[in-house]
Amino acid sequence: MKAHSTVTRNARAPMSRRDFSKGLLASTLAFHILPSSARGANGRLQVACIGIGGKGYSDVSGVASAGADIVALCDVDDKRRVNRNSRDHTLNFPRARFFRDFRKMLESMDDRIDAVTVSTPDHTHFHPARMAIMMGKHVYCQKPLTHSIWEARELTRLAREHRVRTQMGNQAHAGEPIRRAVEYIRSGLLGRVSEVHCWTNRPIWKQGMTGRPVSEPVPAGLDWDLWLGPAPQTPYSSSYLPFSWRGWWDYGTGALGDMGCHIMDMPYWALDLGAPVSVSATARGNSAVSAPQSSVVTWEFPAGPYSDKLRFTWYDGNNLPPADVYRESGLNSGELAGQYESIIIGERGKLYFSRSSMNWKVSPVNLMRSWPRPPVSIPRVRNEDQEWVDACTGNGQALSS
Predict the structure, then answer these.
(1) For a disulfide at 331, which of 238, 286, 336, 387, Cβ 3.0-4.6 Å?
(2) Residue in 59, 83, 84, 86 with CA at minimum distance from that of residue 70
(3) Segment 119-173, tens digit of pLDDT
(4) Mean pLDDT confidence for 100-121
(5) Do the Cβ atoms of 321 and 343 come closer than 8 Å?
(6) What is the dihedral angle through the alpha carbons of 204, 207, 10, 115, rounded to the nearest 10 degrees?
(7) Are 389 and 45 in contact (CB under 8 A)?
(8) What's the CA angle centered on 157, arms 151 and 158, to 5 degrees?
C-alpha cells in the first residue's frame, strides 16, 4: 500500500500552502500560552465552533446542551449557517458571531472564548486546533484527530505544554457498553488476549480514484481557498464536497481513518496497547490521490498487561475476518457484518462487540454466568460533550483526550 502522501508532506516540511501557516504563526505568536477564562456573567464556558455543518452542527448542539454558551460560529461555506430545518444557526445561538476564517475569529474574540470545537474535514483539524491550544483554549476535535501522525504528536505535545483540556470526538468512548466492556476484559473474563478483529462496511463514498475530477465553478457562498487550507491548490469539484472528500488523500484518511477511531477504540483501550512493532497491509485500488476501495491491515503488538503477543487486524470495503474466527458465534457473515464490528479473542473465550448498536456478547455462552461482576472503575458520564465541558470547568477528566 502506498504511503499517505500527507504524512510525507507534514513529516517536517512546512505545514501549509502559500501564506496559510505564515498567517497562522503570526497570529499565535502574539498570544499568551496559559489557559485564560472568558466566562460570561453566568460563569458558563464560552465556546467558539469551527465547522458547523453536518456533524459539526451536532457538535455545536451537543456542547450547548452540556451547558456551554456558543459565542462564535465559523464555516467557510455561508450555506452552513442554515441547518437541515432551514433555520439560521444564528437564530438558534443569538449571541454567536459568524466568521468564515477561524484565524480572524480567534484573533478578534480572544478575550471572549474559553474553548473551541473543530469539526472540519480531516486535513484542516490541525491548524485551528494548534492555534487555539497556543492561545490557551480548551479544544474538542472531531476524529480522526489529525491528517498525519506528526500532526497528532504535535497537538499532544502542545496540549500538555499549554495545560488545556482536550477531547476527540469518538462518541461511544463515553458510553456505558464500552466502559463496561473495558472493565470486564481487564478483569480477566477472556483470559490473555491474542487476536483482535475489527471491520466496517465503509467506504460508502467513492475511493480508488486514479486521477483528479473535472474542474467545476465554485458554488456561491463557498470560500474554496479557505476550504483547501494547507492542501495543494486544486480546482473545485463536487466530487470533493460535501461528503466525498474522505476518499481523497489530500483531504481525508479513507475508511480506516474515518471509522478506525470508533471501532478500534474499545479493544485498544481495554488492552492498554501502546505502539505496534510492525504493520502490514493489502489493498485494492489504492492510488497516489485516493484511499483504496478495500483493505486489510494487521498490526502486531508486544505482550502487554492483558494480552500476549497480539495481532490486531482491520478490514474495510466489505472485507470480514475468516469464517473460523466467528463460526462458534452462530452468526453467518451477513449477520456478523450487520450486528457487530469487532471480535476480541482470548484464551478463555471471545467477545463480540458493536459500537453502533451498543451491544456485546461472549462465547461460550456460559462464560459470563460463572464470572464475578467486576467493580465499576471507570467514571460514568452523560456523553462525551458533557465530559469535555465538565473537564474544561475543572470537574473531572475527559477520557478521550
Answers:
(1) 336
(2) 59
(3) 999 999 999 999 999 999 999 999 999 999 999 999 999 999 999 999 999 999 9
(4) 97
(5) yes
(6) -20
(7) yes
(8) 90
CB 389 within 8 Å of CB 67:
yes
Which of 138, 100, 142, 101 is CA-nearest to residue 120?
Answer: 142
Cell of 65: 446542551
Which whole-number Å values give the CA distances from 267 to 306, 310, 312, 368, 373, in the listed order? Answer: 11, 11, 9, 18, 19
Q: At what angle do helices 20-29 and 126-134 cross, to 10 degrees?
A: 20
Q: Please give the grid coordinates belonging to residue 189.
A: 473474563
C-alpha separations of 309 from 183, 312, 313 in Å: 21, 10, 13
Going by C-beta distance under 8 Å and a sequence separation of 6 or more, which residues neighbour residue 93? Answer: 60, 64, 70, 73
CA dihedral 159, 256, 297, 210 (to 10 degrees): -120
What per-residue string of b and e applies to 258-268 under the rule 16 or more CB within 10 Å gives b?
bbbbbbbbbbb
Look up the pTM and report it.
0.89
Of 128, 138, 73, the closest CA to residue 100 belongs to 73
Q: How far apart are the first and last CA of the chain?
A: 30
Q: What is the pLDDT of residues 264-283, one digit of tens each?
A: 999 999 999 999 999 999 99
Who's near 42: CB < 8 A, 6+ residues apart?
69
